[in-house]
Amino acid sequence: MKIAYIELDYHSECLNSFCIAFKNRQDKVEIYTLTSIYKDLSHNEYINDFRWILCDEDRSSFLKSNILAINGNDVALIGTIEKSITNFSTIKFTIPAILRVHSGNFYFDRKRSFCLPDTISGVVDSIYFFLDNVVRKNELKLLDEFTKEIKNISFTSDTISNHFKEILKNKKLNLVESLPLEVFEPKYSETKNDQLFTITIPGSIDVNRRDYSIVIKALEQIKQQNHPPIEIYLLGKPIGYKGREMIETFRSFNSSTVKIYSFNEEVPQPEFEKIMKRTNLIWCPIKTSRNIYFYKEQFGTTKISGSFSDIIRYGKYGLMPDFYPLPKNLEHIISRYKSSDDLVEKLLILIHDNKFLNQENAVQVFSGYSADAVYNKTMKVFNTFTT
Question: CATH number, domain at 35?
Answer without folding.
Answer: 3.40.50.2000
